[in-house]
Amino acid sequence: MTKNALQILGWCEWATFPELGNERINMKVDSGAKTSCLHAFRIKPFTKAGEDWIKVWFHPEQESDRELICEFAVFDRRHVKDSGGHITHRYVIKTPIIIGEQQFDIELTLTQRDNMQFRMLLGRRALAGRYLVDSSASYLTGA
């Protein structure tokens, strides 16, 4: 795909997650973040068919106590440095995401984002080869 064919995103957009009941999540597009992350306020590891899985509790909407509970195979575990320079050990899941007209599998680290404005950050790994960012615009893929 050439630069001219890349879809333009604003600094914030909506993402839809087919494996989370087609839940729409408001996200900040963050080219400074290497990996994308999603808010999870509780994570419970367990074993299923001899593999590592996690049960995850989400608050998909900012300022709402509505809970969404899902189970995922553990894709990876990574050390991630946050914007404050703190290193945390996070679970990584891989799940389909829809942004605008594109659907693809995304790797998401799971972290507590209750005090943040957005439930998700879309990092540069997910942006690369798919999107360009217009930092002066928002919700270019629709509200």
From TrEMBL:
Residue span, Retropepsin-like aspartic endopeptidase domain: 8-140
Pfam family, one: Zn_protease
InterPro entries the UniProt entry points to: Asp_endopeptidase (IPR008503), Peptidase_aspartic_dom_sf (IPR021109)
SUPFAM superfamilies from the UniProt entry: Acid proteases
Superkingdom of the organism of origin: Bacteria
Name used for this protein in its record: RimK/LysX family protein
Organism: Shewanella electrodiphila
